[in-house]
Design goal:
Elements (H helix, E strand, L loop, with lengths): L7 H4 L17 H14 L7 E5 L7 H4 L3 E4 L5 H11 L4 E7 H7 L1 H10 L4 E6 L34 H8 L3 E6 L3 H13 L4 E6 L3 H7 L5 H10 L1 E3 H4 L4 H4 L3 E8 L5 H14 L4
Parallel strand pairs: 1-2, 1-3, 3-4, 4-6, 5-6, 7-8
Antiparallel strand pairs: 5-8
Length: 279
Amino acid sequence: MANIPQRIIHEYLRHDKKFPHVWCAGCSNGIVLGAIIRAVASLNIDRNDIVMVSGIGCSSRMPVYVDFNTLHTLHGRSIAFATGVKMHKPHLKVIVVTGDGDCAAIGGNHLIHAARRNIDLKVIMINNNIYGMTGGQCSPTTPHNAYATTAPYGNIEPDFDICNLAMGAGASFVARTTAFHVLEMQSMIKDALQHPGFSLIEVVSACPVIYGRLNKKGGAAQMLKDFRDNSLPLAAVEKLPPEKVEGKIIRGILRKEIRPEFAAEYAALCKRVQTEGGE
């Protein structure tokens, strides 16, 4: 990472698009965008071999700005579109950028079954705990008792643990970090890009303009400091008593397994059937 030129990000942007971008001041989406680009650059992946797919939401504007092959698709359907791309051209690196509402609510079924199939997609879920683009409604990851425009007296629903959901569905690579831990994020994305199977990285992110304001979290800098102070690396968790871990964001690679990948299994099936004359 240290050998990557500081302005490498500019080489991967579409400068004919409308800049500055549409994200609010202090939003973590730009941090994640930078981490993705630096991870891609560190692996020397040809940008023509990358497809970035998104659905609808704040984070889903990202493909508009990057000089990869891109698809900006329907709400909750980014993984479905990405699956079609991967099945048609398995050699491509397919990155899905999504949010907690887009991925875990309307898109939840697609997440579950892509993980179950172990199809080689790299899903980066930017989790800001709220529907930021459409007015600040509760999302599946809005914490219990947190405030949203649809929960002015506090959220009474329990929230999803996205990483546990993905692992339960069968994802072979699952990791979590925060927008504060940029080098850690880049390393995880780099690992995911090299992993031959379904990969999910949850990036706990700041939405200071809506979630932060409604929940009195302070500005963007304060929210990032909170991520620093209220998270623990997985190695530390194993050494601490439960009361020291409760309420903390657990960071690290939670699962990394090599299992048969769906597109490769499908290609092998087709070859076998063709060899046997279709019988």
